[in-house]
Recover the amino acids of this structure.
């Protein structure tokens, strides 16, 4: 299969690229590739488009499926569309991972002169042509450089986002990007060029954490950011073998590492302005979510009992006392306690109080306790009330981050 | 009455006096060397901890788990304090040996020969013990966190066993390094390790039947057990 250099040598300049990273997504990528072509043809009729699959060496012929599906739809369109929209697949460079796939897509965008680059997950089932218009439109029109997705989700889904990533990113960098790790984004050619030029592609960003890295980089480097409603996101079920602790290490570890990357920015206390939101939230039918809150609380108590040695190293004594009391008395992890726990974990991560993976992994029982608190509190509430609860937590984080500022450069 | 002393007695006395004078001088020199060694060692004990504090050694020690390992051994002072003590003793020993060597006496030469042979082995053994304690701490902590996250009720026990096994292994290596009854140490270690492995196997088989069943069910069963909260899409 061709690589990026062959693609660059054989492709004329384009205006909009829809990139689809993949690895063994042969059963789902056809729908995404077809939708990408339809979106380009419908929303950008005067622009030259490229649907670009960036594959990691699939064994199920994902690239062939993607190219054939996109080409078949394109060939059904008018002759003009056939002229304007190119379809290609490349084998990406670097370590296996979504980040490496994105890197080649961004570099293609920058080198081919694209004004907008959209990236879509290859396992999307709910993707529609409108997504291309909504993610690329504000960029092609020159309004913004970065568009994050805003999906309709069940009130109990996205708990790492709701409890940690959103409030922390918003409190530290501003912008109010509600789903910083959404997965599907639109970026300008200028921002794509900046991403590709960064010296991060042999780090963890290449393997995981690319979504949050993109959002944070756009916010911290002063690009104009926005978010857009996309409706529900339905995709393949997540890998049941991937454990919660591993997910936390990847996502929360990336969030904490980004605090170090951009400490020069956020310690100056300059926050990005509130990002505009495009489109409107349309009502969608969401599947119910079953949760065993009792088991989560039990795991929280067990963790607090068993990992006391870890928590006394990562949390200050008063916080540890409060946390232990909450666990033993069956009390909730209320907003202030939770925000302070995250702030002190970020500090412990920064000071390398423990091996970093072990530190973030030890957050798992506390996260389960906090999630149980959120679910119990919002069980009888509707989606808007649950969202108001998330926003209340974000305000508490904004207060707690003052302590992060104070402790960050202080000696332990 | 003429008191006569045998001529050989006078010779013996003269030789004895001369010998006594020489030995006294040697002992004084040796005492001086000991005092000098002690003074240098005291200086090392006073300066090294301060220097290590300036270099943030205690912070590093906390990060790599050395502080935790010391606390668990009821050594509650700071790691820089213990490093200062250790280096002071090594200094005392080395200065004493070096000073004794400068006297060039047969009996001090024997001390020098043995001491010089022992110091590198002793230092290596101490380093093995420290590295072993750190590694044991790292392994035990990793196992504890992973086991707690997996909901294993025996998490603390499994972690403690891992720590003991690593410490046993490194202690045996350290003893062998200083040449303490190497055959006995090797045999004792083998017996202990075998015993621990057997105990773990029995504990897992008898006490942990449920755990083993759960593990095998998760590993090979059709419907794997879910982590608490795994019904959620966390990200």
């Amino acid at each position: 299969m061709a690589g990026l250099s062959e693609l660059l040598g054989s492709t004329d300049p384009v205006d909009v690229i829809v990139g689809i990273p993949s690895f063994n997504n042969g059963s789902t990528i056809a729908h995404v590739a077809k939708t990408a072509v339809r979106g380009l043809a419908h929303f950008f009729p005067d622009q030259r488009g490229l649907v670009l699959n960036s594959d990691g060496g699939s064994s199920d012929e994902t690239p062939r499926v993607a190219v054939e599906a996109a080409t078949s739809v394109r060939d059904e369109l008018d002759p003009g569309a056939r002229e304007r929209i190119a379809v290609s697949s490349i084998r990406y460079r670097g370590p296996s991972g979504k980040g490496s796939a994105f890197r080649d897509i961004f570099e293609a965008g920058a080198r081919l002169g694209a004004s907008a680059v959209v990236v879509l997950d290859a396992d999307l089932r709910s993707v529609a042509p409108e997504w291309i218009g909504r993610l690329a439109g504000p960029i092609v029109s020159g309004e913004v450089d970065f568009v994050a997705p805003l999906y309709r989700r069940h009130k109990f889904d996205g708990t790492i986002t709701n409890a940690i990533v959103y409030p922390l990113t918003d409190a530290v960098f501003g912008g109010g990007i509600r789903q910083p790790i959404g997965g599907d984004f639109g970026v300008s050619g200028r921002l794509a060029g900046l991403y590709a030029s960064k010296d991060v592609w042999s780090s963890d960003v290449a393997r995981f954490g690319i979504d949050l890295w993109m959002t944070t980089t756009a916010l911290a480097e002063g690009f104009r950011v926005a978010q857009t409603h996309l409706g529900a996101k339905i995709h393949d079920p997540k890998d049941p073998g991937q454990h919660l602790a591993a997910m936390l290490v990847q996502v929360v570890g990336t969030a904490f590492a980004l605090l170090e990357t951009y400490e020069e920015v956020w310690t100056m206390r300059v926050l990005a302005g509130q990002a505009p939101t495009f489109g409107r939230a349309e009502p969608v039918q969401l599947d119910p979510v079953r949760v065993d809150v009792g088991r989560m609380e039990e795991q929280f108590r067990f963790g607090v009992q068993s990992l006391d040695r870890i928590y006394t190293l990562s949390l200050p004594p008063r916080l540890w006392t409060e946390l232990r009391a909450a666990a033993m008395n069956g009390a909730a992890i209320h907003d202030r306690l939770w925000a302070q726990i995250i702030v002190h974990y970020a500090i412990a991560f920064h000071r390398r109080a423990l091996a970093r993976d072990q530190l973030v992994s030890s957050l798992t029982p506390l996260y389960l306790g906090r999630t149980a608190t959120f679910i119990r509190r919002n069980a009888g509430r509707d989606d808007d009330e649950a969202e108001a609860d998330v926003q209340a937590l974000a305000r508490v984080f904004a207060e707690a981050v003052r302590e992060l500022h104070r402790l960050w450069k202080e000696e332990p | 009455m003429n008191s006569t002393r045998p001529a050989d007695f006078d010779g013996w006395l003269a030789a004895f006096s001369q010998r006594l004078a020489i030995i006294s001088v040697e002992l004084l020199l040796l005492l001086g060397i000991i005092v000098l060694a002690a003074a240098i060692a005291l200086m090392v004990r006073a300066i090294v901890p301060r220097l290590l504090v300036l270099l943030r050694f205690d912070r590093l020690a906390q990060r790599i788990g050395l502080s935790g390992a010391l606390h668990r051994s009821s050594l509650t002072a700071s790691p820089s304090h213990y490093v200062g003590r250790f280096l002071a003793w090594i200094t005392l020993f080395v200065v004493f040996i070096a000073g004794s060597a400068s006297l060039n006496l047969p009996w001090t030469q024997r001390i020098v020969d043995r001491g010089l042979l022992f110091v590198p082995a002793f230092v290596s053994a101490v380093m093995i013990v420290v590295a072993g304690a750190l590694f044991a701490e790292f392994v035990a902590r990793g196992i504890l966190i992973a086991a707690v996250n997996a909901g294993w009720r025996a998490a603390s026990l499994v972690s403690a066993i891992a720590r003991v096994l690593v410490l046993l292994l490194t202690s045996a290596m350290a003893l062998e390094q200083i040449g303490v009854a190497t055959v006995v140490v090797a045999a004792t270690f083998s017996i202990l390790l075998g015993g621990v492995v057997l105990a773990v196997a029995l504990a897992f088989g008898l006490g942990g039947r449920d755990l083993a069943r759960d593990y095998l069910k998760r590993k090979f069963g059709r419907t794997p057990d879910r982590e608490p909260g795994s019904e959620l899409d966390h990200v």
The two ends of chain B are 117 Å apart (CA to CA). The first helix of chain B runs from residue 7 to 54.
